[in-house]
Amino acid sequence: MSSKMLKRDDSGVLHVVALSGGHDSTAMSFLLKKREPRPYNYVCTPTGDELPAMFAFWRWLGSDAGLGSPLVPIMGGSLKNLVRQEGMLPNFRARFCTRVLKIEPYRKFLMEQAAVGPVVSYVGLRADEQGRAGGAYADIEGVSMRFPLREWGFGENEVQSALADLGVQCPHRTDCARCYHQRIGEWYELWRDFPEVFDDAVADEDERGATYRTPGRDSWPSSLREMREKFRAGLIPKTSLARMGRERMAAGGCRVCSM
Ligand code: SF4
């Protein structure tokens, strides 16, 4: 990526905000802009498998009505191509997608930019999740990491009230459409609202002879083909959106993809 697309401050420091579009990174980005005005560079790491609401939200965030500076996508390839290259589906035991499509490209980007001048990377980890690490970037020479939500003592409640005050509503899913972390209710919504994407995920499973979902996790079939039959037969999972999100995170949902 050309450094000309990026803005450094008067001291030559590049301020990079990792913005997934989830609640935490969105609240952090708006509050940083307000509390610590400086030229920020907002970056996201799309996989090409996000739902339309996610792309629309990224566009809005980059507009003058949002953060006023277009997001810079850092691409490490697409989920679809990665599955072909690896010859397997990502799942709970093989979490290669986040590493290859998000962590490694962001690390490469930081290294390239640190070779030009100092970089500060802002990450939206909250004060109420102290156990979580901030990514494998702090060792890069010339890169310093900041966790503003932690510095401000912001937990989930503070993030939610900041978003309410700002009048910002994040999409309820910021992950990949076919992410193996999603809950049954989210698979149902994917089948109902984006049947062509669901069918494509069924084709992935047929092609690889494997399933995105780990077998035996609940009473629903692990195979999306069988799950689709149940949906077609009128079986509808009863879960609220908020509960689905909480369940996804409690089950080890990918923090890099949802922050
Ligand atoms: S959202 Fe899910 S499928 Fe997409 S990169 Fe993250 S863990 Fe992998």
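The radius of gyration is 19 Å.
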